[in-house]
Amino acid sequence: MGKFFRIIDLGVAALNKNIAVAGIALGVILAFANVVLRYGFNASLTWAGELTNYLFMSSALFGAAYGFKKGIHISVTVLLMLLPSAVGKALLILSYTISFIYLGVSAYFGYELVMLLMDFGEMSIDLNIPMWIPHLMLPLAFAGAALRTGEKIYEVATTHADEVLGKSEAELIKDSVEKE
Prior knowledge:
With about 180 residues, the protein is mostly helical.
């Protein structure tokens, strides 16, 4: 199972990270260009606002999915540290399992939304593209995040209970200060 995650990891990480970075970079550039056009030349790109919204949303969703891989989402482990390590490990697996289910259900309903938008043939007002195209980011980002959460479940399940929680952030800071 670990080999499966390593193989999938390359494509999913590249997709999540690159879409997140491209979304924020292109969104900022487009918004800036539209502001310059509007106030400097009294002209505007009518479609820029809608595209900027889609770029920022894709950046947030795919960035969050990438955050699962890096473990940068906020987590409060103070209660887990007070419990026996086996109980803490079990609760951490439960937490990741609940997250996995939520993300999987969100990916499914995102897919259902895309299918519904395809059936309706709804078009974007400013960009004049089918609405299912920008909404495709929902099932993709949530599926990527679910995959990452599944990876974390496997990682915690295969790690010894005493090593799962490791050191707290305060202990890591203290250790780094003592080394200097």
